[in-house]
Amino acid sequence: MNDILTGKTEEHLTRGFSGFLFNQKASSALEILSKRAKKEGFDLRVVSSFRGFEQQKNIWQRKAQGQKVLLDSNGHPLKFEDLEPDQIVDAILRWSAFPGASRHHWGTDVDVFDANAVAADYEVQLTPQEVAGVFAPFYSWIDELVASDDAEGFFLPYDQDRGGIAPEAWHLSYRPVAKEYEKLYSEDFFIKHVSNLNELALIDEVKNRASEIYARFISNVAS
Ligand SMILES: [Zn+2]
Fold first, then answer.
1. 45: which strand partners?
2. CB 178 within 8 A of CB 103
3. What is the distance in A from the centroid of ligand 1 to the CA of 110?
4. What is the pLDDT of residues 31-43, one digit of tens each?
5. Is residue 223 part of a domain?
6. What is the DSSP code string of 61-81?
7. Exposed (0-12), middle (13-18) or buried (19+): which is 80, by Cβ within 10 Å?
8. What pTM was estimated for this model as a whole?
């Protein structure tokens, strides 16, 4: 189970909706949701479903070492050279999960968009601008379904700004399974996970702040 929670195994996954790796039940539910979307004129597509530890680690390393641009709370680029280590950690975690602490490890969570709203060669960014702009009708539809608990079991863990991870209108989570994983992913579990990591940029900073990071960036999601 620990390896499932931290993205170090794929044993809990199947090749599911649109050929992406998923928890089987989440995949079936997404299949139904996509058929309902079609009736509304949307083409529900996946940007990202499962991401493993190594993939998340790669994102972390690039951002923590200034190889990938960091964004402030509102999505504007920051100057890496001007940042203190704790500011770098904050800037990364606002937009990217810590390796071993991403809901995308679970196979229950998925980022989606509406392919009907854009040209075939459009590169989806998943930004607040897209949420308010080109994909607004689609994400409003999702939002309404979730609000009335009619989204085939999916909810939006990052539905609003709780001071940690930025709002993500595109990030769906399959509640029946994900909430069970959430319960297992305790503060102790995270602290233990972090204490076992060494080969990671800024790891000492994260170790020192593990409790705060857990409270702010991991556990405070929609209920
Ligand atoms: Zn996501």
1. 113
2. yes
3. 6
4. 999 999 999 999 9
5. no
6. HHHHTTSS--B-TTS-B--GG
7. middle
8. 0.96
Question: Number of folded domains in the chain?
Answer: 1
Q: What angle do CA 113, 100, 177 make, to 5 degrees?
A: 60
- For residue 24 the two structure tokens come to 């089987």
- CA dist 132 to 38, 76, 111, 126, 140, Å? 21, 16, 16, 11, 9
How far, in Å, is the centroid of ligand 1 from the Cα of 104? 6
Full residue range of the structural domain in which residue 12 is found: 2-218
Report yes or no on 34 lying in a domain.
Answer: yes
Q: What is the DSSP letter of 215?
A: I
Of 218, 205, 215, which is closest to residue 64 (Cα–Cα)?
Answer: 205
Residues flanking ion ligand 1, Cβ below 5 Å: 111, 171
Evaluate whether 45 touches 112 at the Cβ level (below 8 Å): yes
In this structure, what CATH number is given to the domain that contains residue 89? 3.30.1380.10
In a domain, 67, yes or no: yes
Over residues 182-208, the mean pLDDT reads: 97
The mean per-residue pLDDT over the stretch 217-221 comes to 97
For the stretch 47-70, pLDDT in tens is 999 999 999 999 999 999 999 999
Q: Is residue 60 part of a domain?
A: yes
